[in-house]
Design goal:
The protein is of the alpha+beta class. About 20% of the residues lie in helices and about 50% in strands. An 8-stranded mixed sheet has the order 2-3-4-1-5-8-7-6.
């Protein structure tokens, strides 16, 4: 697995981009509207790191529940060579599937999956 980005929940892209701009993060690419995952996405980056700003739709109850707990940095994302094998391996180590593999607009419709660790933290796997 290769680290790719941190997922950060937001309710206001403009405010988040301005705040992260103070520590030299700038917009990367265009706004993405992913109806399947029920989110709008905006990537920002500095010279070394990528943050995925995620604004959930009102009917995305899972992410809105996380946002209410103020867990704004809520997932780490990793690129994997074989999505199915990676999921099987993590499930054997008690990771729980939250979102089965689905195509993601943010990654040119490559499949992503979300799993939860025992401690409740979420990881995203991105098909390479």
């Amino acid at each position: 697995m290769k680290f790719h980005h941190i997922g950060y929940l937001t309710t206001n892209f403009k405010t988040s981009i301005k705040e992260f701009g103070l520590i030299k993060y700038f917009k990367k690419g265009r706004m993405i509207n992913d109806k399947l995952l029920k989110v709008k996405i905006r990537f920002i980056r500095n010279s070394n790191n990528v943050i995925e700003l995620v604004k959930p739709y009102k009917n995305n109850y899972g992410l809105n529940k996380i946002a209410k707990r103020k867990n704004y940095a809520y997932h780490f994302a990793y690129k994997v060579n074989n999505l199915s094998k990676s999921i099987i391996k993590l499930k054997k180590n008690n990771f729980k599937i939250l979102v089965n593999p689905v195509p993601a607009k943010a990654f040119n419709n490559k499949k992503v999956a979300f799993l939860k660790m025992k401690n409740g933290f979420i990881i995203e796997l991105i098909e390479s």
